[in-house]
Amino acid sequence: QQQVKQSPQSLIVQKGGISIINCAYENTAFDYFPWYQQFPGKGPALLIAIRPDVSEKKEGRFTISFNKSAKQFSLHIMDSQPGDSATYFCAASLSGGYNKLIFGAGTRLAVHP
Amino acid sequence: KAGVTQTPRYLIKTRGQQVTLSCSPISGHRSVSWYQQTPGQGLQFLFEYFSETQRNKGNFPGRFSGRQFSNSRSEMNVSTLELGDSALYLCASTRGLADEQYFGPGTRLTVT
Questions:
Q1: A99: CB partners within 8 A, 6+ apart
Q2: Which of A56, A60, B58, B71 has its CA 20 to 30 A from that of B87?
Q3: What does the pLDDT read at residue A2?
Q4: Cα separation of A105 and A113, whole Å?
């Protein structure tokens, strides 16, 4: 019940294309869903986050879509660029003021020029 | 504003030894969380400290411990190191409760 399942494991996209990464969860007590981007040798960097009271959030080329009934959320990267090549992690945390993040396994994205 | 800093960045230790890692959060942030990242297990939560108190703990053995000081800086300690403790240890700071977490660059620990 504490798991967050992320897919695909790896993704290859052409420059200018749309990258889509999906995550699913079981625990309905989760109420905060961030996405992180990690480059080799670096710590994860917060990209965008959403709470269950909205179905979509957009920041620049990055959009989170959230489906509460299906317990799924996804990250869309529009106009993907080679500089977006990194590992992306979805995560979730419980309501009640806890800062414990449960992470998905990660998706390695490669954007080819 | 300076980000989360972690020291040292790299460490090599021998099995059976102990190690202490340090984390300085973003100025004004009061919560510090620690995570272990390995290729096999991914990112796993170790523990969280807020106002010098441990608020939350992950499923790790008692060899893993931590503390937080009055200036919000935090340390984690691993005693009796095992080969499986080789990992990237990440610290994340948060302004308060249930806020955005910002990660440091991590400490790469290698146990031989």
A1: A93, B31, B33, B48, B50, B55, B56, B92, B94, B97, B98, B99, B101
A2: B71
A3: 72
A4: 26
Mean pLDDT of A87-99: 86
* CA dist A63 → A38, A50, A59, A66, A102 (Å): 17, 10, 6, 10, 20
CB-based contact A96 B98, cutoff 8 Å: yes
Of B92, B75, B84, B24, the closest CA to residue A89 belongs to: B92
Contact A102 B4 (CB under 8 A): no
Task: Note whether B94 contacts A100, CB cutoff 8 Å.
Answer: no
Shortest Cα–Cα distance, A104 to chain B (Å):
8
Residue A113: asked if its preceding bond is cis (omega within 30°), the reply is: no
Interface test with A, best of B101, B102, B108 (most A CBs within 10 A): B101
Query: Quick one: pLDDT at residue B99?
Result: 74
Other beta carbons within 10 angstroms of residue B4's beta carbon come to 21
Give the span between the Cα atoms of A101 and A99, in whole angstroms: 6
Query: Which is more confident, B95 or B101?
Result: B101
Percentage of residues in chain B having pLDDT higher than 90: 88
